[in-house]
């Protein structure tokens, strides 16, 4: 059983092929994580849609409470 | 279909207006709502909202293999209630707890941010209503709280508000809309 953190890493890598990726476990007890993603996949995408793109990867975990809170920073690489 | 009567009542307190529903849903009516969900038909406003969302996604060249959640995931009655709450004020926030007694860090930080802006808003404590809490996640395709709505449109959660605050777009938007 992979850790939640490694699941987050692998799923984001597969979906967005990020130039930069940082996944932080803010609180194991509260199941809170922060992700900082820099990926060309976010170029031209409105902020709220970027967050939806990331949230959608973890829909089941967020619904079940396996992930309680996911802090998201999602940006395209500097042009 | 059984009619679920949900009236909305308000409790004014200074700049904050708490939006709540007059009666809570009993177990049997909650079950009725669950069954009604299977038969729900999207109304025109939901359809246009979904069309706009699809257009935005298309314009962003965003493709997904997952089926986007349909508005019919929530019953017509619940969708109407959610719409009414969202549109109750120009700025409506759904909090875990209340501004004076936030129940999670992100709600507390959002309240601080809104206070810092000096903006008037209405809030709904999602911990008071499980049906709203779960229904709104599906309705807005947003899995967490707090959630912020401006003129009936989802702005996002605390992350987005914080990002927009830092890059100045939140203040600009609120000024453009004459909310501050």
From TrEMBL, chain A:
It comes from the Eukaryota. One of its GO terms (cellular component) is mitochondrion. Pfam families: BolA. InterPro entries: BolA (IPR002634), BolA-like_sf (IPR036065), BolA/IbaG_stress_morph_reg (IPR050961). PANTHER family: BOLA TRANSCRIPTION REGULATOR, BOLA-LIKE PROTEIN 1. Belongs to the BolA/IbaG family. This is Uncharacterized protein. It comes from Leishmania infantum.
From TrEMBL, chain B:
InterPro entries: Glutaredoxin, GRX_PICOT-like, Monothiol_GRX-rel, Thioredoxin-like_sf. Keywords: 2Fe-2S, Iron, Iron-sulfur, Metal-binding, Redox-active center. GO terms for cellular component: mitochondrial matrix. Coiled coil: none annotated. The keyword Disulfide bond does not apply. Gene3D superfamilies: Glutaredoxin. One of its GO terms (molecular function) is metal ion binding. Signal peptide: none annotated. It holds the Pfam family Glutaredoxin. This is Glutaredoxin family protein. The lineage of its organism: Eukaryota, Discoba, Euglenozoa, Kinetoplastea, Metakinetoplastina.
């Amino acid at each position: 059983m992979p850790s939640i953190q490694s699941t987050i890493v692998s799923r984001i890598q597969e979906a967005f092929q990020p130039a930069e990726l940082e996944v932080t476990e803010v609180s194991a007890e509260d199941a809170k994580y922060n992700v900082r993603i820099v990926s060309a996949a976010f170029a031209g995408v409105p902020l709220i849609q970027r967050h939806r793109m990331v949230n959608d990867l973890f829909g089941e975990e967020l619904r079940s409470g396996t992930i309680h809170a996911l802090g998201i920073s999602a940006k395209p690489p500097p042009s | 279909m059984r009619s679920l009567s949900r009236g909305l009542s308000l409790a004014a307190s200074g700049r904050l207006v708490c939006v709540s529903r007059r009666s809570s849903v009993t177990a049997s009516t909650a079950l009725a709502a669950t069954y009604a969900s299977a038969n729900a038909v999207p109304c025109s406003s939901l359809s246009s909202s979904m069309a706009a969302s699809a257009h935005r996604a298309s314009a962003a060249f965003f493709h997904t293999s997952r089926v986007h959640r349909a508005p019919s995931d929530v019953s017509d009655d619940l969708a109407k209630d959610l719409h009414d709450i969202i549109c109750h004020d120009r700025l409506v926030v759904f909090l875990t707890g209340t501004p004076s007694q936030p129940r999670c860090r992100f709600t507390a930080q959002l309240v601080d941010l809104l206070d810092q802006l000096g903006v008037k808003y209405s809030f709904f404590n999602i911990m008071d209503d499980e049906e709203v809490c779960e229904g709104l996640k599906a309705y807005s395709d947003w899995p967490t709280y707090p959630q912020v709505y401006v003129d009936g449109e989802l702005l996002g959660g605390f992350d987005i508000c914080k990002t927009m605050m830092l890059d100045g777009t939140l203040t600009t938007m609120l000024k453009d809309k004459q909310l501050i």
